[in-house]
Amino acid sequence: MLNFPPQNIVCLTEETVETLYLLGEEKRIVGVTGYAVRPKNVRKEKPRVGSFVSANIKKIKDLKPDLILTFSDVQANLTKQLILEGFNVICFNQQSISEILSMIKYLGSLVGKVEDSLNLVNEILQKINIIKKKTYRIKPKIYFEEWDDPYISATRWVSEIIEISGGVDIFAKKSRSQKALKRAVSSQDVINKNPDIIFASWCGKKVNFDKIKNRKGWSSINAVKTNSLFEIKSPIILQPGPAALTDGLSQIHDLILQWQKSQICNHKNFS
Question: Is residue 240 a part of any domain in this protein?
Fold first, then answer.
């Protein structure tokens, strides 16, 4: 049954879960993806009904949702399966910061929280604009690794966050490609670009820094020489929602500032 606003929502991606909580509409959520960790209490409060590419259809049917929320082509087969089962499904496909903000407003309108969603978007924009207005004497070249086999570079919203934070994404052009494999880079590509900082977030898998440092030829990379390698936890950067534009943005910005200060100190020591 199609209701408006929907009363029983299943969220199969993290960002819609967090957004509904931030809008004070968590009561509508009846099931979530197993990857949902924001806010912390979601694991205790909401039943988990699937992973990112699969779901427990029987469990979802028992929850009697009037709306299921999915994301992008990665969940295309799952979305199709749910539609064939007779569910109402909305599949978001936000890839940029502006599209993330639009998703928040769209979701707010779905649950009758237009004003609250606009307020949330404005809060996020204020934070972004404060960071944007800062001037940076030195902009580090940054390689963001989303996966380690093959090497996958930053998606679009992550690339935009890097640029806002005062860095230069060395594979910014590739970030426009939605499909992960089109953002694949070779080891030699990274060596040639010689990044000053390496950020890694391996889709929930723990980053192995020794493995990165010991890659053939990578000892010549500035980031490896200075040990400027940092893990950004997947829940705060790889889900295109509020987390990436708040905690994810803050962490990347702070680490870039930390690197910039070290460069200024080094310059003074050698001048």
Answer: yes
> The whole model's pTM is what?
0.94
How far the first Cα of the chain sits from its last, in Å, is: 72
> What are the pLDDT tens digits along the chain (271 aa)?
778 899 999 999 999 999 999 999 999 999 999 999 999 999 999 999 998 889 999 999 999 999 999 999 989 999 999 999 999 999 999 999 999 999 999 999 999 999 999 999 999 999 999 999 886 778 999 999 999 999 999 999 999 999 999 999 999 999 999 889 999 999 999 999 999 999 999 998 999 999 999 999 999 999 999 999 999 999 999 999 999 999 999 999 999 999 998 887 765 554 4
Domain annotation covers residue 111: no
Range of the domain at 66: 9-95
- Regarding whether 260 and 204 lie in a shared domain, the answer is yes
Residue 110 counted as domain residue: no
